[in-house]
Write a structure and sequence with these properties.
The protein is α+β, with helices and mostly antiparallel strands. The protein has five domains: 140 residues, no CATH class; 146 residues, Beta-Lactamase; 132 residues, Beta-Lactamase (2-Layer Sandwich); 162 residues, Histidine kinase-like ATPase, C-terminal domain (Heat Shock Protein 90, 2-Layer Sandwich), CATH 3.30.565.10; 112 residues, Response regulator (Rossmann fold), CATH 3.40.50.2300. 36% of the residues lie in helices and 23% in strands. The chain has 19 helices and 32 strands. The longest helix is centred in the middle third of the chain and has 62 residues.
């Protein structure tokens, strides 16, 4: 069609408008306006300077050339709508306007602003279009509002839009994060192919076209084969082309027309779906023959799309709100669970479980204070360190998420089966600590409308891209990616980041307070330890000085002191095994008698309930019982083969402990001519240290003693016992002179005094030579030059342990014994569970038993 020449006195015939709208623009130099006219079927674009149009007197056009186009009332109505325009992209519409005087044809008009111009679009109103199509929108929206999910909403909306517009295919086309499109809902006529589930590359809709979709919600192409009319003149007085971005009747890009022709589509309608003023998707409508969609239906479709966007936004907001509430509940639960926590590592299982309840994942890992902890499918610690270095290059104050970790961090391609995607939640700023959620690889089959990887070629339109010609379904298997992280999950992670930060800060404060309390406890412990050590040293000094008065030889003195120290050590071991809790008196008696009496221990009988004694009373009674036992073995009932001892316990009315010692059947006893230190311990310890009473009597039938332990030193009385201690002793002492070793022995001990004593004991046990070493280094040097037949290893050597030496001895097949000053041996490595453990202080008999156990 040729472009007509329009002059100021041109008469425009507004009747007989029965053809489809095409754009033919004429130029009229009157009132400074530009008028676009289709002479066959009026589709007008009238462009006026805004200020001129608003100041134009409707009465002034009467009798002028413009009066053939527009009446004063029509101009007045149009100008009123122009004044209501709010914003650059606003459009106002008028329906059923009498545009020309004396004409039976009514017109629909749209007005909007374009720079300094007013664009007026005029279309004739079809006689049959008498229905108020906008009233259809309310029941349409009522139907879509019943949807419970976004897919259901889109499916209902596609059916509603098809019923309104009558197009062969109506699709809901959603844009992804990578700008590609996917048909997520569809309504089609019979015998029309389905595009449901097909994906379209981002290049199918250029960015400038997306921006137009965002600004102008509706785009109509009634016939792809129609000739396009030029704009005359091409440029305005200022040299710029007329901006018709908001025009509903403007022509579209020839690239898009060719794209539709390649698809076999003759007519199309696109209505934008916005979410938070961003392009979320489109109602994409196709028809396989030309289709003129009346202005009223187009307006109703646009209104429906706008209201649909509100319903969509509300549904998305509701889902986000539900997710937010779940996260808030999780926040409260985490804060309650971790209220008394010491560190993230201590509560990591609870944190991982809580996160997984809101954000699906395949594994969770944490890097906090230089410690790595993980659960589920996660990278190794070494691989995770590389991820931490990568994350340190990202923003530190917000969550980082990717479903293509291998693309941004290439080393991750080696463990894509465990970590194809990650969501990292920073829980500190400096140093950078993270809780990271991982997703494994998800091999996805994507159905494309044509091969998205096919090279794009240049076509006849100069340096403009040629649209795709093939739309056959093409399936692609996508690997190396995880299931994408949804925006709601990322938002939840942002909320949880604040929670975890709060947790970390709280734990940091608690850790600081714990450190302060620990420092205070350490100072008290050091003071208490200092006090105890001084008391022990004073006690040992007293034992030595007092025992020296009884002994007639060095050997006797050594045996007396050793026995008393061993009695204290056994009591101490029993207390430490129970964490310094009240301990059993019966067990103390068994330990003491079996250690010194051997087979004679079966001649000691217990009567009455067992008693749990407080630690201070327990240590005191250990010395008293030791002296009574050794005296009985030397001079009393156990000095021969007939005598026996009966030890009775009874609770008094004041909950005090009444303890009796009765010897019988032994040699006659009589009071000593002088009171030795042992007798002093028996008669004075309980009254002096515990505030109790002690009564010692030398009857002809045997020694008798009665003691009273005040209730403050008694924890509780337990089940009564009666009868002999045991039919067989726990261990039988070997003669001290019996050799159990031969050859060379290795002694690893960092305390010189203890080492010298142990060296003597090893030699007494039969060792030909003893190599004394105070550290692991010295012991290794000795092992490199000597073949040892036995080794005695102190477990703790200052800042190191003897475990490396133990491992080497085990590999060589050399038997060895651990020695420890700790009552609890749980600190020893589980690698040496079958190795005998000798508790300090040890004597010749104890060492010999341990040696025989190691050699067995």
């Amino acid at each position: 069609m040729t472009t007509p020449t329009v002059s100021p006195d041109t008469k425009i015939d507004l009747t007989n408008c029965d053809r489809e709208p095409i754009h033919i623009l004429g130029h009229v130099q009157q009132f400074g306006c530009l008028i676009a006219v289709n002479a066959d079927w009026l589709v007008q674009h009238v462009s006026l300077n805004v200020r001129e149009f608003l100041s134009l007197d409707p009465e002034s056009i009467v009798g002028s050339a413009l009066s053939d186009l527009i009446t004063a009332d029509a101009l007045r109505a149009i100008r009123g709508r122009v004044q209501q325009l709010d914003g650059a992209d606003a459009v106002e519409r008028l329906f059923g306007i009498e545009l020309m005087a004396g004409s039976d044809t009514r017109h629909n008009i749209a007005v909007h602003l374009s720079g300094q111009s007013v664009i007026i679009e005029i279309e004739p109103q079809r006689a049959e279009m008498t229905n108020d199509y906008t009233s259809y929108v309310r029941p349409m929206i009522d139907r879509v509002r019943k949807a419970k999910s976004v897919p259901e909403l889109c499916k209902i909306a596609a059916r509603q839009m098809k019923a309104l517009t009558g197009f062969d295919r109506v699709m809901v086309y959603r844009f992804g994060e990578d700008q590609s499109g996917e048909v997520i809902a569809e309504a089609v006529s019979p015998n029309v192919d389905s595009f449901l589930g097909l994906h379209y590359p981002a290049t199918d809709i250029p960015q400038q076209a997306r921006e137009l979709y965002r600004r102008n919600l509706l785009r109509i192409i009634s016939n792809v084969k129609e000739t396009v009319s030029p704009i005359i003149p091409e440029r305005g007085p200022e040299g710029r082309p007329l901006d018709l971005s908001m025009s509903g009747l403007r022509a579209v890009s020839p690239i898009h027309i060719e794209y539709l022709k390649n698809m076999g589509v003759d007519a199309s309608l696109s209505v934008s779906i916005l979410h938070r003023d961003e392009l979320w998707g489109l109602f994409a409508c196709h028809h396989y023959e030309p289709r003129v969609l009346p202005y009223e239906i187009r307006s109703a479709a646009e209104l429906f799309a706008q209201l649909f966007s509100f319903v969509l936004g509300q549904l998305i907001a509701d889902e986000a709100s539900q997710h937010h509430r779940r996260v808030q509940v999780l926040h409260d639960r985490l804060m309650a669970q971790l209220a008394g926590g010491r560190s993230v590592q201590d509560h990591f299982p609870a944190i991982a479980e809580a996160l997984s309840s809101v954000i699906p994942n395949d594994g969770v890992a944490a890097w906090v204070d230089g410690e790595y902890v993980a659960t589920g499918k996660t990278p190794t610690r070494e691989d995770f360190m590389g991820i931490v270095r990568f994350l340190n290059t990202t923003a530190g104050s917000r969550v980082y998420a990717t479903s293509q970790l291998g693309e941004v961090h290439p080393p991750a391609r080696d463990y894509v089966d465990r970590a194809a995607g990650l969501l990292a939640v920073p829980v500190s700023r400096r140093p950078r600590d993270y809780v990271v959620l991982f997703r494994e690889e998800f091999a996805q089959k994507v159905n494309w409308a044509g091969n998205p990887e096919k090279p794009v070629t240049y076509g006849p339109n100069g340096a403009r891209l040629t649209p795709r010609k093939s739309f056959e379904s093409w399936q692609q298997t996508v690997t190396g990616n995880s299931v994408p992280w949804r925006s709601a999950e990322i938002s939840a992670a942002e909320q949880l980041r604040v929670t975890l930060l709060e947790v970390v800060l709280r734990m940091s404060d608690e850790a600081h307070q714990d450190r302060e309390r620990a420092n205070e406890r350490q100072e008290l412990l050091i003071a208490e330890l200092n006090h105890r050590v001084r008391n022990i040293l004073n006690l040992i000094r007293g034992l030595v000085s007092q025992s020296a008065r009884e002994a007639t030889s060095i050997v006797e003195l050594s045996n007396i002191i050793g026995g008393r120290v061993q009695a204290l050590a056994r009591a101490h071991d029993q207390l430490t095994e129970d964490n310094w809790a009240p301990a059993s008196l019966h067990r103390l008696i068994r330990t003491e008698t079996e250690a010194y009496l051997g087979l004679k221990a079966a001649r000691v009988k217990l009567e009455g309930p067992d008693v749990l004694l407080m630690p201070n009373a327990f240590s005191t009674l250990s010395l008293v019982l030791h002296e009574l036992t050794t005296n009985s073995a030397k001079y009393g009932a156990l000095a021969d083969s007939e005598g026996q001892i009966t030890i009775g316990t009874e609770a008094t009315s004041d909950n005090e402990l009444s303890l009796s010692w009765r010897e019988s059947g032994g040699p006659a006893v009589q009071a000593p001519t002088r009171q030795g230190f042992g007798t002093t311990i028996i008669t004075k310890s309980i009254p002096h240290e515990l505030g109790g009473a002690a009564d010692l009597r030398y009857a002809l039938t045997g020694l008798e003693a009665d003691f009273v332990i005040p209730a403050g030193h008694v924890s509780s009385f337990t089940k009564a016992a009666k009868g002999a201690m045991a039919s067989e002793p726990a261990s039988v002492q070997e003669p001290p002179c019996a050799p159990v070793l031969e050859g060379s022995a290795l002694l690893v001990e960092d305390n010189m005094i203890i080492a010298l004593d142990a060296e003597d004991l090893l030699k007494a046990a039969g060792a030909r030579t003893v190599s004394l070493c105070g550290s692991v280094k010295e012991a290794r040097q000795a092992l490199s030059s000597t073949d040892f037949q036995f080794a005695l290893l102190d477990v703790n050597l200052g800042s190191e342990t003897s475990e490396p030496i133990a491992a080497e001895l085990r590999d060589r097949g050399v038997p060895f014994v651990f020695a420890t000053g700790y009552g609890d041996s749980s600190a020893l490595s589980s690698k040496f569970l079958n190795v005998p453990i000798l508790k300090k202080p040890y004597d010749e008999n104890g060492l010999n038993d341990a040696i025989k156990a190691a050699l067995a």
